[in-house]
Design brief:
196 residues, mainly beta, 8-stranded antiparallel sheet, 3-stranded antiparallel sheet, 2 helices
């Protein structure tokens, strides 16, 4: 799946899913969250970023994980995947990473997974900021095909093999939470590499 072509019809955006009090609770939980200036866990791209892996299926839960994150996971598992496909089944969480960006942080386009058709990513936008998520045609052709606008409280869900990039905010602090999980859904058969 190294050169998957991004299909914008497989990028799902959900706005105003959570009640306002819960959105605010998520934002407050990450107001002074201890991020690290580090390299991506999935790619050695020599572009450090502010972030922290707070869950991985092999290593477990980081002690700093705010409890409200579990509510977001349940929202994905029990509601959002069924908005994508009524018959979708949740196959388990792989990892959760908190990402932080300022106007000078511009991480390169990347894929979260290039091996599994059933691996999907959900982004949750935490702060009242800007800094859209750009999606590109494929790894070998970085032509933008879709842009998800950043808005506090919004979820964006897409196959983890799609090339994407969190664009820097104009000012302030852009915080997102990236969830990687497996789902069995009708769209998995449309995710393929040009070599397939």
């Amino acid at each position: 799946l190294n050169n998957v072509a991004t299909k914008k019809e497989l990028i799902f955006e959900f706005d105003s899913i959570l009640p306002v009090w819960l959105e605010n609770s998520v934002t407050e939980s990450f107001y002074r969250f201890p991020l690290e200036y580090n390299h991506h866990v999935y790619d050695d791209d020599n572009c450090p970023f502010f972030g922290k892996q707070i869950y991985h299926e092999e290593y477990g839960i980081d002690n700093s994980i705010p409890p409200v994150v579990f509510t977001l996971i349940k929202c994905i598992e029990n509601e959002l995947i069924h908005k994508i496909d009524d018959n979708a089944t949740f196959g388990g969480l792989k990892r959760v990473i908190v990402n932080g960006q300022t106007s000078v942080n511009n991480p390169p386009p990347h894929m979260d997974d290039d091996e599994n058709r059933d691996m999907w990513t959900a982004l949750y936008y935490v702060t009242d900021s800007d800094g859209d998520t750009a999606f590109y045609k494929k790894r070998s052709e970085l032509q933008e095909v879709h842009r998800a606008s950043y808005k506090q409280g919004k979820f964006v869900i897409f196959p983890s093999s799609f090339m994407h990039q969190g664009l820097p905010p104009n000012d302030g602090w852009r915080v997102s939470i990236g969830f990687m999980f497996r789902i069995n859904c009708k769209y998995n058969k449309f995710i393929f590499s040009e070599r397939d």
